[in-house]
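Duplicate of #3305? Posting structure anyway:
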């Protein structure tokens, strides 16, 4: 099942659009924070890369695979209720750039 355009629009309403952008790819949306891939919208689910800090911050969130045989990522079930997605994305980006 592909991610709906409305789901992408909802995500973009909940982040700093100067720092976060998405790109549609094969029916899903890849999420970039300052041009670094930090996650994506897959099957209408927000999945972020499982960095050490993200795992600590989202310790109660389940891991899920975006597609068969892919590396597991952290599921953010109701991202509209997350305190600050932009800060989470920034934290993930910092770890990926080390």
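Output from current build:
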């Amino acid at each position: 099942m592909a991610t709906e355009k409305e789901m992408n629009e909802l995500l973009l309403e909940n982040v700093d659009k100067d720092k976060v952008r998405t790109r549609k790819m094969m029916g899903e949306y890849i999420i970039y924070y300052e041009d670094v891939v930090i996650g994506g919208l897959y099957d209408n689910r927000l999945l972020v890369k499982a960095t050490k800090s993200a795992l600590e911050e989202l310790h109660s969130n389940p891991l899920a695979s975006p597609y068969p045989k892919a590396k597991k990522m952290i599921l953010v079930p109701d991202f509209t209720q997350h305190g600050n997605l932009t800060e989470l994305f920034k934290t993930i980006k910092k770890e990926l750039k080390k």
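Confirmed duplicate; merging threads. The first helix runs from residue 5 to 13. Strands lie at 20-25, 28-33, 36-42, 45-48, 63-64, 73-76.
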